[in-house]
Amino acid sequence: MSEIQCGKKNKQEPSDNYWEAVLFEFLQLVIGGVSIGCIYALVALGFVLIYKATEVVNFAQGDLMMLGAFLAFTFITILGWNYWLGALAAIVCMFVIGNLMDRAILRPVLGQPQFSIIMITIGVGYIARSAAGMMPGWGNETYAISTPFSSQGMRLIPESMGQLVVSQTDLSVIVATLLFCAGLFAFFKYTRLGVAMQASSQNQLASYYMGIPVKAVFSMIWGISAAVAAAAGILLAPTTLIDTNMGFIGLKAFPAAVLGGFGSIPGAVVGGVIIGIIETLAGFYLPPGFKNVAAYLVLLLVLVVRPQGLFGEKTGKRV
Amino acid sequence: MRFLFKTDYDQDIRLAKHSGYYWSYGALLVLITAVPFVLDSYYVGQLTQLYIMAIAGVGLMLLSGYTGLVSLGHAAFFGIGAYTEAVLTAGVTLPFMSEPVVFPFVLSFPLAAIFAAIAGVIIGVPALRLMGIYLAMATFAFAIVVEEIFSRWESVTNGYTGLLVESLYIGDMELTDGRPFYFLSLGMLIMVILFSLNLLRSPTGRAMMAVRDSEISAQSMGVNLAKVKTTAFGISAGITGLAGALFAHKLGFLSPESFTVLQSLELLVLVIVGGLGSLHGAIFGAMFVLALPQALAIMKDYLPLYIAEQPGLEPLIFGMILVFFIIFEPLGIYGRWLKVKLYFQMFPLYKKATFKRQKSYMKSERLR
Amino acid sequence: MTLFAAENLAINFGGVKAVDGVTFDIQEGECFTIIGPNGAGKTTIFNLISRIYDSTEGRMMFCGEDITTVPPHEIAGRGIARTFQNIELFEHASVLQNLLVGRHCHKTTSLWSEALFLPSVRKAELAHREKVEEVIDFLDLQHYRDSMIMNLPYGVRKVVELGRALCTEPKLILLDEPSSGLNVEETQDMSFWIEDIKKDLGITVLMVEHDMGLVSEVSDRVLVLNYGRMLSYGTPQEVQNDPEVIKAYLGG
Lengths: 319, 368, 252
What we know:
The structure holds three protein chains of three kinds. Chain A is mostly helical. Chain A has a domain at 33-131 and 164-247. Chain A has helices at 2-54, 61-78, 83-106, 114-134, 168-190, 192-202, 204-209, 214-240, 250-259, 265-285, 290-305, and strands spanning 153-155, 165-167. By secondary structure, chain B is mainly α. Chain B starts with 9 loop residues before the first helix and ends in a 22-residue tail after the last helix. At the A-B interface, helix 4, helix 7, helix 9 and helix 11 of A face helix 6, helix 10, helix 12 and helix 15 of B.
């Protein structure tokens, strides 16, 4: 009996090692996927916040992210501020920019069909991209921000067990995403302003009557959303570097938001992470080309099977 | 001011509502027929391009303006039409034939439209269960997948290397250049417009508008939502595919870069700036989209060098015009046209308040 | 003759029984009214009949045929038309176009003949128009023929919606609160029209209504619902004197 077992073990040893390597490779990819997925999640979070409140899909979200990253670049690299101070300043600036954007551009079109408002955000995206390209010191080149995080891998498990590492950069993204989500969740649940925001997103007219300054609330939400986008841009900067077209990554966040149901904050995060993982895995295991479209194929599939997204509620009009 | 006395139900069905239509559209027809014999070839080419864009615009208008379904991926249908045309006119090796078959244009154009229409129906089927933003996202995803197919299916599309498009000939005359191409595109545009007008004045067109305004009551009136939506997608994609087929000859060289998300957005801008919900809007929109780069090129000569040399100038102005239009003239150029027309009709009694917009609050479109 | 019959009809929304074991029949040529406090499930019954909701139990018979699982867009073709509580007109179209959509269930032309606008299409369109004009005459809508719905006052919209339902040439018309939002005079007009629809056009009426004046004026039989269950069933007088009904409305 024992002899046979021994024999079996000896025979399988090389193959065990092989599978172990495959498994660790897979896990390593998943970690990378989660990290990029968190960026998608942060951008998707921005979509969801605005959509929940105003039913507008902000196509300029990716460009807001780009602006945030450039602001951080200006503060940290050009002006030489401390990283944390620069990042915070960029986030605050973007909050103000988002707020002003709502006041100046979106408030006048309140009540028009969603479609036109979506087109406005597309227009804003165009403006933001070309304006960033024209800014002295920014321009159409690629830049890097020096960060305190090293891109060196940290071991997650003892070396004897295998090769599984996570870089500080990736870790910073994951931790920041979790912090942001927790913060937003608490904000909506426990603060007066958060509850007012929820109310105005459910019924604008009724909220007016209840004395909620709906317009100010909307501007606030645009501000928060832009701030989240800025954070995403700053976190993304070490991975992809900064250029005026980095906003197109926002297009990848759409599938994430839809996957999560486009109205649900936890949904956006889960959707983002799923998209990140699938994309990374597809890039490694499938033929070239699939990496670019994997996210969208998943999106189409989900929409066919479950039209309201994974976390969305199924709604119908009452007559 | 003209007063119409209606004595016959047919008067409401006719395309020309009164004699003024014959005069104005007749004059327009004479003008555009004379144009290629007067202007030099550059402008003839530009006008040809205008007609092609207008065809695509009409296609998208039927879907977005009349059926209320937003598509963020019409470049895909445009591209499918273009590649089909290029491949068919270059010659296809069919399984049961030894020599490649070269399709004549009378066959290849309809086939290009049909291929695009089939793609439209395919994306239309999941669209039945999708509303608003989910639908827009589905079309968006579809367009990105199609774009990737264009660049990866190298045996057919030649990928990023690009695909040369054969010119078409009738006898010795080259059909796809200069005046003949101008008239070919113009003819196609007129055909497509008549086709759309006919649809819009018959039950299918009314069902489309019904679906746009209230799905639930359309359904209760006997409108089969699934059928109307897929039909709208199919027709819209087919028309856009036809425009794509013409566009293939206009470009002469196809590569996936011509059919990206940006192209889809440009088509959307076309219908919005032109004026949603009117066929005039599609034409005005096409004029806008083509005239803008020209206007900018002229404007650049008068701008200070530092600004004029910025590569981002064009998208900047493009974006600004889009934003300004939606804020100040949501009905688009066609809306402005109506106002100007009414101003002269009512002169001097025109009241500004006629078109005053009501203050409105956000209406949820999540449920419709 | 029984035109419509609901047998043991029931629907649950996530455990809530919105309609529970409702059985009634509508005779040809009568005006049948469903009343009941808010949330009693009246509109839900309408939505069940027009097949917007799937019933969890029971079945519906119309003209001797089972319509429990017929797709919603075929209901109009079978002869059941409806109006909505909060007006569901096609806002960006004219009154005429709205009424013509009501003719959709009688569409005979195919897509391709329409695209070419063949003579057959023109003929069909003229025939539809003639039917629509009959309804316009019936409801005195001549004045509004070419107006856009979004520019019309509420009362007129209500009439247009009734007209759109009539354009389908129904055997049974479902009116969801025909008098809600109307003033006294308009309500009076509405009650005359309902009478005329019943008597002159020979269309059977099923309505949901709160205005008891209107109910007792036009209806032949009344069904009272409360919490999705049948409370009472009979002529308006019988129902109004039923102690159960009084209890449900007045409490106690």
